[in-house]
Amino acid sequence: MMLRAEFTTEPFEGEGEPPAHALAARDCLLAADLEPDFGPLGTAITADRERLLPALAEVLDKALAAGANRITLQVTAEDDRV
Description:
2 helices
């Protein structure tokens, strides 16, 4: 089953470099050999369930450890059977 996840880490820090918690989240996905769409207001990623769910658990852990105080996550199943 393919999943699409979209998440935002907070707090936002305005203009300039992305905050450490956003970079930590992105780096977890890259380390899992996934290709996130990383942007100023959030990150999106599509991958198979078996690869994405463990990576998202790591994203939550690492982003919180790097200073996130809120993570908003939406996961959508992109499978016709759902």
